[in-house]
Amino acid sequence: MALQNYIVSLVHHSEYITKNISLTSLLSTLAIAYLIYQVIHAAWNISPFHPLGHIPGPRLAAATYLPEFYYDVIKFGQYTKKIQQFHETYGPIVRISPNEVHCNDVRFADEIYPLGGRKRDKPLHQVRGSGAMAHAIFSTVDHDIHRVRRTAIAKFFSRGQVSRLEPKIHNLAQRLCDKILAQGKDPLDIPSAYSCFSTDVISDYCFGESYGFLDQISWEPNFRKPIFSLFTPVFAFRFFPFLEPLAIAASSMSKHLPEDMGLLIKTLTVDMPESIKKTRADLDAGIKSKEQTVFGSLLESDLPAEEKSVQRLTDEAASLIAAGTETVGWALAVTTYYLLSNPEKLQRLRKEISEVVDTSGQLPSWTTLEKLPYLGAVIYEGLRLSYGVSARTARVATEEDLVYHGEWTAKGSKGPTTVSYRIPRGFAVGMSSMIMHHNENVFPESHTFIPERWLDDQMQRNKELERSIFNFSKGSRACVGINLAFCELHVVLAALTMRVFPHMQLYETTEDDVRYDHDLFNPLPKASSKGIRAVIVSPYAT
Q1: Which of 157, 383, 399, 424 could disulfide-link to 51, CB 3.0 to 4.6 Å?
Q2: Which residues form the domain of 508?
Q3: Is 206 annotated as a binding residue?
Q4: Element (H or E) spanning 96, and its range?
């Protein structure tokens, strides 16, 4: 009996070993097969038979996504700087991944980002990780779906609509000045202050009610840091999209998060959906708000029913908050640093603005302010050095090949060389504002704050050079809120220049605190930076 039990036990043990050996063998075989596939795929990517095989660039980037993964995920947001180095080595057209090309020639922008009916999709690789903005215009891959969504919301950001709501912007600009001047001698974090202003503007403008950040005793909470926190895993999600649902779990932990992050999560997951549902219920009951809101405008539009779902409209609202908060806020912060660092430029700006301010100190309208050439020059130079979305924004031409013709002077060469490249349809090609804004052929001394570069020989706006600004992208997918952004910048910069800057001084802040170091969609300085800070140093008149 004992022998029989031993034999049975031995048989079971042998079967167990066999099963495990089989499983191990299977996994090993699959791993080897996957590795062989990747090697073959990489070899194909760098072969002359690949549709992008003729585009210059580093071989490893053409073969695999490893360089992008290393510089964006491991070194965190550094691939844009590496791409800039690629251009210095390989020229204006560079292959930066197996299926993507990058351009550093503003003359080709209208081909990559055209207006009209020329179709341009967004590459799926770049919109992965959009998270709370997955169904927004910004993250829409398909050209036709994007056009439908954009058409429904574009009228809400028309120049006429912005002008009608301009008094709200003037009011918030003056409240910002009041709050800064009341700061006293305590150091002020400039980006946080401007973030409060820009968030109050976009929330009041779009949703009919300001979030009230300027009404707080302090400058916190605000949405600036939590927005960047939500963007932090974006690069990883591009390579591991199956991890993205984990980010959604953060909404259930809002009570355990820092106050500012908890507030943002609550706004995105509770307040906005409830606001959409209430607006829909009011419209169904025949009740219309006195002031048109984004939600009301979209719900009353001709969009298909699926485009009016609570989730999609919430994503759209999240996109508006993210874009409307940081783009304007950071541009103002960078401009403030350079004006306070260049007193003669600040004095010239004050003199120009003072000529259109009435005896009561009341600022004129946006249409009057935008006619001031030096104010416009300062705004454009501040935009150039703040970049907007600094990461690359690629497009995919689905119905046509793109053909580039240009010149390039390689290092050590005696003169320019003519180059031509055909970029086949179906492949991504894009530009990056950080790289474009430091093209020395377009912007000499590109790292220096020179507003005068935006003026022509008659000291008027240089309209041709203005076409080279890339903060709001270009073409049919350009930022829908560009009119609102320019209105904000003109009004609040004029208010700050006249009321605040004469009494403000930078505090332990250097150019390293404003210079680009890496990006999370938007630009960020070195991690060691303590921010752009200032103090109020002299008596003032309110």
Answers
A1: 424
A2: 113-392+432-536
A3: no
A4: strand 93-97
